[in-house]
Records
---
Amino acid sequence: MEQKENSIGPGDEIPILNKTAYMPIDPQGRNAIHTDDYAKDFGMRGALIGGSTLLSYVLEMLYRYFGQDWFGHGKIKVSFIGGGAINGDKLTAHGLITAVEPGGEETRMTLDVWLEKQDQAKILVGQASCVC
Amino acid sequence: MPEKSGFEAIPIGFEVGPLELTLDEETVRERAELIQWEEEKLISEFGLVPPGATVVHHAHMKFDALPDLKASIWAKSEHEFIKPMKVGSTITIRGRVVDKYTRRGRNYVVTEYETVDESGEVLLRSVETGLYVE
């Protein structure tokens, strides 16, 4: 697990996380956007990977960096853009530190976070912060 | 739900859930495998649930509560992690529709979720905006 470095600051990127997008396709599933036919009719490339799965990739990157501090002090706000991901997409989670605000014994770090596909197109963008 | 159906009929304040869920090790590992969680020690050594692993249930709760909903795509989501979820614990997730709106001809529903443990302590707060397709 990556650890926080004391010297890291605004403009630095935390370690990235790579995943191959995967979600089982259930033709009987409640959300039709997770089926190929419906998603293609909707203008997508295929059955969309669930937003909670995409979010989990970013959360794992943040957990690896912040450790268990994340559970008590982690906040994240994201938007889903760019047509989402389908099974097999090669995804990379990124976090770029934008602010480090010392406050007594604790420091709040704020980051821009995003998830991009193999063609560098972003499919999730937002901000996260954690007290550490 | 009122007699009228569909997006127009969804009242602000409409309750979604609650859902009670026991986070036994099998359940946690099943979800961890699906999201390809690689930090095994979190579960095996610390007895904690990967962050956000229960968020998938928010969508299930929404589909159960809104029978006319055929498809939904997250537009935005926001989560505040307050306390860790322990493997073996039982959590309760309560949801509520807090807003709905139409933009560029598409309907959106905003739902808040609060996850608490057995003693009622809040573990996770979420606000999710989803495209609503009937």
---
Amino acid sequence: MPIERYIFLSIALFCIGIAGVLIRRNAIVVFMCIELMLNAVNLLLVAFSKMHYLKGASTNVTAGIDGQLFVFFIMVVAAAEVSVGLAIIVMMYRNVHSVDINFLNRLKH
Amino acid sequence: MNGTDILFYFLSALAIGSAILVVISKNPVYSVLWLIVTFFAISGHYILMNAQFLGIVNLIVYAGAIMVLFLFVVMLMNLNADSEPQKNKWIMLAGTVAGGCLLLVLVAALKNAEVKGMGLEMKTGNIGLINELGKALFTDYVVPFEISSILFLSAMVGAVVIGKK
């Protein structure tokens, strides 16, 4: 399988996430689009790790394993980020009674 | 076109289609459900590349834990289609054009990248198995692994402190 297919698939998913962040006004959906972008990057990291494995397997039996461990750590950070971020969104909803990000751009409130 | 290619194109179409539906769904609950479909498709890609550990962890952590958290928050806030405020059509158009421009620029830049023509083996190789990953994680990456436990502890404390008042 050529690596370009995975590059283009990841670019497509990442750009859909970018467009979602720019288009949507709902804070929770914006947050979900950020998760989508993280997943696109994870997919590309795994594809590159497999590519390096194919290239360096003759000298090093675990060539390219670092890419998959980075994906593991990205997942760890994403889980922590989601728990704190959703707590902040719930707190803002309690104060402002809205999750519209146009209401949340004024820090003085 | 063999079975692996067909599976690749099917999973890619599923991932991109449901990702677009995440963005254009009016109801946030439908967005969450389509995002779960996207994560299943990406897990299918991981398993196709024989990264079995990451495929299962993606299902358990993302589709299992994180999306259930999103779903709980959406239902707790009682959001529905008409809670989405009326938005400017020009802003939507500008967002779509900006995303499309980024897509165009990235594809044009990476079309003839240095990695062009390199391949990857599907369905073989053992670096994605839990045996090799566990060995590398607990020898070379043991310090980041322990630091991530502190990160989780602080995230848990932060979420409880923010949610409590």
